[in-house]
Structure formats: C-alpha cells, structure tokens
Amino acid sequence: MTTTSKLKTLLAAIALASSGLAVAQNSLLNVSYDVAREFYKDYNAAFAAHYKKTTGQDVKIDQSHAGSSAQARAVNDGLAADVVTMNTTTDVQFLADNGVVAKDWTKKFPHDASPTTSTMLFLVRNGNPKGIKDWEDLIKPGIQVIVVNPKTGGNGRYAYLAAWGAIREKGGTEAQAAEFVSKLYKNVPVLAKGGRDATATFLQRNQGDVLITFESEVVSIDREFGAGKVDSVYPSVSIIAENPVAVVERTVAKKGTAQLAKAYLDYLYSDEAQEIAAKHAIRPRSEAVLKKYAETFKPLKQFTVAKYFGSLTEAQKVHFNDGGQFDKIYSK
Description:
The protein is α/β, with parallel strands linked by helices. Helix content is 48%, strand content 17%. The chain folds into two domains: 3-116 and 242-285, D-Maltodextrin-Binding Protein, domain 2 (3-Layer(aba) Sandwich), CATH 3.40.190.10; 120-239 and 300-329, Periplasmic binding protein-like II (D-Maltodextrin-Binding Protein, domain 2, 3-Layer(aba) Sandwich), CATH 3.40.190.10. It has 16 helices and 14 strands.
C-alpha cells in the first residue's frame, strides 16, 4: 500500500470513528419503569423536536421498560443507560450507592429530582360487579386482587405501602396494618413481575376482580384495550408516589452524553412535558397544569411515604428486603 493510500485509509478510519462518536453523543437510552412507556414515547418526540429547534441537532432516544427494580439491577449490572426514570427513589439510590449515578442525585433537579408523581388506585371490571369502593373491600372472602411483586417493581411496593398506610391514616395501629396487609395478600392469586404484567394478568388472562396500580395505567388500558373495559375506583386515601430521575454518570462519561442527558431530564419540568404527563394521567408538579387537568386528577386524600415509613430506604429494609415484613406475610 502506498503512503497516499495509507493516509486515505487512516483519514477514512478517523472520519468513521468521529461519525460513530457523534452518533453516540446524540443518542440516549432511557431505562424506565413498566407503565411509563407511552408517556416517554410522546415525551421523546417532544424533546427531540425541542432539541432540534434549539440546537439544530437531531437526537435519537431509545427506551427500555420493565419492573423498576429489575431495571435498576440491569443498569447496575452494565446496561448502558444514559438516564434512568424510575418510580421509586430506592431504585435510584441503589444505583447511587454503587457509584452508577451521582451520590447527590436528588439535588441535581427540582423537587428532589422527581418531575412528576402518581398515586395508587383500584381498577375494576366495567360496572364494578363486586362493588369495590375502598381498601377494606379487598380483604373480603372471594375477592381476588392482582398486584405487582414488591420485590421486583416499585408499582408493587407502592401498592403495599398504600394499603399499610391507609389503615394507619384511619387510626389503625402498626399491628392492625400488618394484619390487614396480610389478609389482603391472602387474596392475591399470583404476583405480577411489573405493572404491565399485572395489567396483562387482569385483562388478557382475565384473572382477578381488582387491580391495584398507578393512576396513569387507566389511560394506557383505554388506549390498548379500548375505553370502557375498566372502571377507576379512588379509595378514601392513598399514597403519594414520586417518580425520580437521574443521569447515569458511568455511561455518559464514556459516551460523552452528559449535557444531552441533563437537557433531556431538565425538559421534563417544562410546561410542554408537564402537559404530556397530565395527558397520560401522571400528576405534574406544575400547579397550573395540575389545575388545568382537574377532571383527570380526582381529589384524593394522600399521605407521604415519610409519614409512616420514614423513607423508601427505611421501608425497603423493614418490609421488602429478604426476611422482612413482606416475606413474613406472603408465603405463596
């Protein structure tokens, strides 16, 4: 090979490597929880248009969805997410503890890095044939409850904590809450892996009388299965579920996507993104948008995780770690 040919080959290799780097720098992988897939599909399109308008650059965004805790473990084990958008803070904290996201991740974005919230409600079959109205109805004989395994998904952890906290909100003791939750899980025929698996169990496999899930899931069900398949039942009290986000420092350092990843998560707080969240029945932080969608978000008495559990980290240790309260009450 002549010197000129070698030079051309070298230049071509450099150009190819540069183009590959450019593609990497303008692409993101968002690893997220199960029932957020439709929201992020719409959000990604809005962000890409915004990014193109403000920077002149195209951006490619890939999504990965499954049970929140399973996703966190996958990222910890090497899945190259640029950002994580989860439904429980413990899943992001797990990554922080392992050096995958920043130790001070809650300080990187407003509202402790949770741009949206949700709550847990009941979905019943059209017409509510079993007359389910509140938590106490879930422990009646013959009622089958579909719920996510709290060890694999934040959806399941929030359902468990919502049930426990509901008894405390009504004046019950810790012992009474434990007794109630134990009875509830005796009415659970099978534990789902994640929120979407729970929905499939309820609607496609036609199991159960009631599904405990995030408020946003009713919108997804209406779109996928057709309106009128389920009725929403708002219990007398439920839990505030925060949806935390973080940049995956380990990945963005390798790919050079730190600025893009930050911009992607920053835009979740924009009016446009908050509107998209509201349209998917995910509660926006923006008071103005929340007020605009008042018909979507029914008035509901809510309590924080901190009120009865200290924090999700504490709840994880007491209730969901191996040998914890959940293992003691669920023997199937």
